Amino acid sequence: MELRAELLKSIWYAFTSLDVEKSGKVSKSQLKVLSHNLYTALNIPHDPVALEDHFSDDDDGPVSNQGYMPYLNKFILDKVVEGTFAKENVDEFCWTLCAKKNYRPKNGVDVLPDKDAFHLWCLFNFLSEDNYPLVLVPEEVEYLLKKICIAMSVELSCVDMEDFISQEAVQQSGITVWAFLDFVNTGRLTRGMVKDSVTMAIDEVYQEIVGNIIKQGYLWKKGHLRRNWNERWFSLQPSTLHYYVSEDRKECKGCIELSHNCCVEVLPEKEGKRCMFCVKTLTKTYEMSAPDTKQRQEWTTAIQTAIRLCVEGKKSLHKDLKLRRREQREERERRHTAKEEELQSLRLLQWERESKLAELELLQVCVAEREIQRDRETERERDRQRERLTLI
């Protein structure tokens, strides 16, 4: 279900980009082309008969999103097999389709190369809410921009950030991906940065969040047969630790399968290698050496996190973190709502108390006025009696 939801986000952009008139409907000829390309990208055997049969009625009119969904679910998404296709290919196809009609940097200013914009689009989709149209809440916008700034070793400008997320439209309904890309293309986030540095930072965040890479980098590894040491590029994911000849990851030299039976331990210095640690599985022990103690601590912590995710049956660290942030926002919202309700109750009690006090004061004033009136009447009566006595 998680993979289906992720694919639907990208496909939704492709569908809506074909809806030129913004009517919620797309022509059948365009949907046939879209479906054909999805078959190819998802590595599903083409079924032209089913495609033609589904769209063969006499009505040549357009098909709505709701009308296309049954076909999309039955003939495409139900046939998807995880691991048999590259999701990035699906994302690239959908991005190419929607970017042509929606991604137009303002004033002709295009700070981002297309690949960077594509990676940001994927990051946006990953972090966006599961409701349509897809938007990013202000807290997630700030989270993503901070991640990119940390990767660039710069601080996120609070002024620029607040100016952006304080816009009324953002506060009310969230931010769209096109508004997000427009903001990044203003250059306010990357002010003074070399383009290559920006590209490297965006790619690093993309690999971490979308690529599901918890940590990667060079480590020295001790061989099992020759017992010699070789420098390898390691890439850690929730269930695996792959190691390659270099960071281009073209030649994989091996894979350590992680499970609840694995553990990571710090080792003392030996054979001229410092900052050592090992990963123990049921069958092998893999010895490694980090560049320094800080890196060793980061690696051992990251591997422990990957093992924990395996134990908990979770496939992605950042999906887990996203869920936690959402739960925290919902909890804050509940507390805020409860506090507002409490304040409203207190204000109501205060108003009732003040109303009763006002009523009491008014009553007291009325009583006092009646007493004064009665005293005046009594005095007038006495005066009349004295006048009568005088006349007698």
Automatic annotation (TrEMBL):
PROSITE patterns membership: PH_DOMAIN
GO CC annotations on file: cytoplasm; nucleus
Superkingdom in the source lineage: Eukaryota
Ranges for domain PH: 212-308
Listed transmembrane segments: none
SUPFAM superfamilies from the UniProt entry: EF-hand (SSF47473), PH domain-like (SSF50729)
Name of the protein: PH domain-containing protein
Organism: Oncorhynchus mykiss (Rainbow trout)
